[in-house]
Every structure is written in C-alpha cells, then in structure tokens.
Amino acid sequence: MNMEKREKNIEDYNCQDLHRIFSEEYYKKHDKEYVSTRFIGYEMKLLKGLLETHDVFAMLCGIVACIKRNSNTVSIPYFVAGIKFYIPDDDNPELRWKVQTSDQPEYRTKWQELRLLKAKWLPKATDRTKMIQLEKDLMEWLDEKKKKTARTSQSKKTLK
C-alpha cells in the first residue's frame, strides 16, 4: 500500500489545520512551541466557529497578521476575539495569501506596487492603468497556480 503524504487543498482546511498553522507561525516568530492557554478543544471550537463565518484565506492572512503584531503572549482565543482587526480588508484574500507564501519575489513586488497604487488618494490615469495591469498579472499567476495544483492532484489520483 502506497503511504505517501498528500497535500491538502487550502479550501478544505478545517480547524485542526488552522491550529497547526497558528502554531507554525508562532514558532517562526518566537522560536518556541505554542502552548494552548486553555483546553485545546475550546480553541478548536473557536476556530471552527470562525470558519463558518469567514473565508479560509482571510483567516490564514489574519493568523499571520495577528502573530506579527503581537508578543509571545498571543493565543488563539485572543486572535478570535480580535478577528476584525486581523482579517485583511482587501477584496481578494486568496491572492494575498498566495503572494505571502510565494517564493517568487517578483510577485511580492507586484503585490506591493498594487497596494501602494490602491492606497493613493488621487491616482492619475497612468496609475489606474498600471493598477489594472498589475491586477491582471497577479490574477493570471493565481489562475496558473490553481491549474498547476489541480493537475498535480489529478495525476496523484490516477497513480493510486
């Protein structure tokens, strides 16, 4: 029997996956393991409730933002209580998550340019066209990435 580890689609993440990612991000910043402040079942229940009301990608971005902004006393109940402060306010959290986790600096640079252009108080017409082009490039990259993961998951299914 072939026991290879399969990559789970982000859209299929559950509260355990979010807890794992919170722990990993916590470890990256503070160089120590995350220890639950309360019963772990309570933290899972809180995350499950958030999953019912928020997008997975928005929550992932929120977890990263929460851990970056707070000290080592941050916890999942603290994150859940202040969720409105950590959820990204941009219109495409999936794109934001993919860019944040990407290894390609060119797309991170494009993302930063896009954010700066969107933040301009009075953009010029050239800024508007550049913003549209950057959004188009990033969305094409995201679609290409989705197709690539879909192809690899289909090929893994056929190998079984």
Order of helix and strand elements from N to C terminus: HHHHHHHH
What does the largest sheet look like?
none
What is the approximate shape? globular
Average pLDDT figure: 88
Number of strands: 0
Helix content: over 70%
**Which residues sit in consecutive blocks of at least 5 with pLDDT less than 50?**
none
Strand content: under 5%
* Computed Rg: 18 Å
Between the first and last Cα atoms, what is the distance in angstroms? Answer: 9 Å
Helix/strand-derived category reads: mainly alpha
How many domains make up the 3D coordinates?
2
Q: How many helices?
A: 8
Descriptive overview:
With 160 residues, the chain is mainly alpha-helical. It folds into 2 domains: 11-86, no CATH class; 93-150, no CATH class. The chain contains 8 helices and no strands. Helix 3 crosses helix 6 (93-100). The radius of gyration is 18 Å and the shape is globular. The protein starts with 14 loop residues before the first helix and ends with a helix.
In short:
The chain has helices at 15-30, 40-53, 56-69, 76-81, 83-86, 93-100, 105-119, 125-159.
List the main descriptive attributes of the protein structure presented here.
mainly alpha, 70% helix
What is this structure's SSE topology?
Elements lengths: L14 H16 L9 H14 L2 H14 L6 H6 L1 H4 L6 H8 L4 H15 L5 H35 L1
Helix pairs in contact: 1-2, 1-3, 3-6, 7-8
